[in-house]
Amino acid sequence: MMSRREDFTEMALGLVSAQSFPAIVGIADHMLKSSGVTLVGYEKIGGGHCTAIVRGNVADVRLAVQEGAERAEQFGQKLSTLVVPRPMPNLEVVLPIGNRLAQLATGRGHSKLSNQAVGLLETRGFPAMVGAADAMLKAADVVLAAYETIGAGLCTAIVRGSVANVAMALDVGMVEAERIGELHAVMLVPRPLEDLDQTLPLASCWIEEMQPLKIPLAVKETQKETVALPELTQEMKELTIPNGDRALPESAQLDAKPFEIEQSALMQPQPEEVQMDVEAEDRSDSSEPSSSKPARPSHRRRDRRKP
Fold first, then answer.
1. Kind of pairing between the strands at 117-124 and 182-189
2. What DSSP assignment string belongs to 118-152?
3. What mean pLDDT comes out for the span 213-229?
4. Cα–Cα distance measured from residue 207 to residue 211, given in angstroms and rounded to the nearest whole number
5. Which residues of the chain does CATH 3.30.70.1710 include?
6. Neighbouring residues of 298: CB distance < 8 A, sequence distance ≥ 6
7. What is the CATH number that goes with domain 107-210?
8. Helix count (H) and strand count (E) of the chain?
9. Which CATH number is 1-106 given?
């Protein structure tokens, strides 16, 4: 247990509550820029009540909550604040704080609207919010990132773009919201930090998710160009010349003479075959008288069998 407590002795949680979503976003932005804390996220409990939750060491959290309270007074918000110096792990696990920290660690994907100014326009009533959002999109070069509802009929349209375009869009949106219904709050964040950008609601169409790399299974290889070799071409020409027109080289002629001698030697009958012929001739001659037909030498029989 002591080792688990030691990990949280220098950590603290800070909570600041307001009754407007644009107001709590502006308070959170001021808290992040005034001290080194991390914005865990927002908790909406209905009735227009929103709470910004920050996390860091004890000194930074105390400073951030103090700065947030001063900014809320400037907005005319009735709020409540709280600093928890050394929260137990059980507290962070049960509350949605642990889930928010896990989401911040894994990330939600790269947004196409990062590093752009944020404009928030809150109305009481959904038609007034839709009409104001349409007027803002037609008046300036901004995009509708998302919308947020916090109860009590409060709806917030969130637009992104350059600082000048967002400021122009908010001016037109306020006029349209007052014409249709009730305008509740307006907020412009010119340079939002990454922590604030990650905690703002964002429509799925603006999130760039990582896609798997597609590798083609069949890879077509281009045929390489052939290179002509002069020596190989000359040899091919010599091979295509007819036999009558082609003369053997001297080395080939020298090698051909032993081949002819060996071939003539192969044409001569083997001694065993000659022996068998002589014996057959002797048997045929033994039936006749010896005086009538003399025996013939074997070499004459050998010469006669030559082709």
1. antiparallel
2. EEEEEEESHHHHHHHHHHHHHHSS-EEEEEEEEET
3. 66
4. 12
5. 1-106, 107-210
6. 274, 278
7. 3.30.70.1710
8. 12, 10
9. 3.30.70.1710
What is the rounded (10 degree) CA torsion for 249, 254, 258, 260? 40
What is the pLDDT, as a whole number, of residue 267? 54
Query: Which amino acid belongs to residue 78?
Result: K
Close Cβ partners of 27 (under 8 Å, ≥ 6 residues apart): 16, 18, 52, 68, 71, 72, 75, 77
Classify the C-alpha dihedral 129-134-138-144 as positive or negative. Answer: positive
Q: What is the pLDDT of residue 102?
A: 60
Q: What's the confidence (pLDDT) of residue 27?
A: 93
pLDDT in tens, 121-168: 999 999 999 999 999 999 999 999 999 999 989 999 999 999 999 999
HSE-up (13 A, CA, CB side) for residue 64: 31
Please name the residue that has the structure tokens 């979503």.
21
The answer to whether the CB of 187 falls within 8 A of the CB of 23 is yes
Q: Where are the beta strands (DSSP E) in the chain?
A: 11-18, 38-46, 49-57, 80-84, 110-111, 117-124, 143-151, 154-161, 182-189, 207-208
What span, in angstroms and rounded, lies between the C-alpha atoms of 143 and 128? Answer: 18
Q: How confident is the model at residue 81 (pLDDT cuts 50, 70, 90)?
A: very high
For the whole model, what pTM was predicted?
0.62
Paired strand residues for 151: 154
Residue pair 8/88 in contact (Cβ under 8 Å)? The answer is yes
Comparing CA positions, the residue from 211, 210, 38 lying closest to residue 108 is 210
Residues with Cβ within 8 Å of residue 235, at least 6 apart in sequence: none
